[in-house]
Amino acid sequence: MGGVGSKGLVLLRTIPLFSGVCDPELEQIAGVAAHRKVSRGTVIVRSGDPTDSLYILINGSARVMNSDEEGREVILSILGPGDFFGEMGLIDGSPRSADVVAAESCELLVISKADFKRCLQENFEVALNIMKRLVERLREADRKIESLALMDVYGRVAKLLLDVSEIHDGRRIIPRRLTKQDIAKMIGASREMVSRVMKDLEGSGYILVDDGQIVLNEQ
Ligand code: CMP
Prior knowledge:
- By secondary structure, the chain is an alpha+beta fold.
- The protein has two domains: 5-147, Jelly Rolls; 151-216, Orthogonal Bundle (Arc Repressor Mutant, subunit A), CATH 1.10.10.
- Helices cover 43% and strands 25% of the residues.
- It has eight helices and twelve strands.
- A hairpin with a 5-residue loop joins strand 4 and strand 5.
- Helix 4 (113-122) crosses helix 5, helix 6 packs across helix 7 and helix 6 (153-164) crosses helix 8 (191-203).
- It is globular.
- The structure holds adenosine-3',5'-cyclic-monophosphate.
C-alpha cells in the first residue's frame, strides 16, 4: 500500500482507534494505510466475502446492514467520521458479517490484514481501543435486543431517537440525516408505522422538525 504521508499523521491523531499511540508509531501506520474515496451507494464491504482489510471512515457516513433472500433489510448501525469497520473478520478469520454501504460520498483509510495484525501486536493501545469499541457495540446490541423484545414501535422509535441524539448548541438533535426508512430498518418496523409514530411525537411536542433536522424537546 502507498501510505498517506505527513497529512496522514495529522489525521491519525484525530482517530479514536489510535488514541494513546505515540507519533513514531502513528507515522508507521500512516506509511502503510491507503487513502480511498467512494461514492454514495458503494458497497465497501460485502457480507460473506473473505476479509482482507480494516477500514477507517475519515468523513461521510456508512450503513452496516444485512438483508434476507426477499430483499428485506436491517440496519445494524450507522457509522460516522472516526469510526472503523471490518475488524471482526480480521480478528476471528471469518467472512464479512454484514454489508457496509456508503450512505454518502466517503473518504476512508484502508489498512491491510497483515499491517493491522502487526499494528495490534506492536501497540497495546490500539488493541485496547478495539476492545473498548467492541464492548460498546455489545452494549448497544444488548439495548437493541431489549427494546425489540420489550417495547412497542412507539417506544422503539423514541428510544432510537434518544440513543442517536447529541447535544449541539444546547439543543438535543439528531446529528446526521436519518430517514423514516432508515429508522424503520433499524427498529424492525414498517416505514408507514414509523411515519405515524413520528407524526404523533411531533403532534405531542416531543420532537420538532426544524429545516429537515429532528430536534428532541427535553421538557
Ligand atoms: P466484518 O465482519 O469484518 O465486516 C462487516 C463489518 O461491519 C464488521 O466487521 C464490523 O466492523 C461491522 N459491524 C458488524 N456488526 C456491527 C454492529 N452491530 N455495529 C457496528 N458495526 C458492526
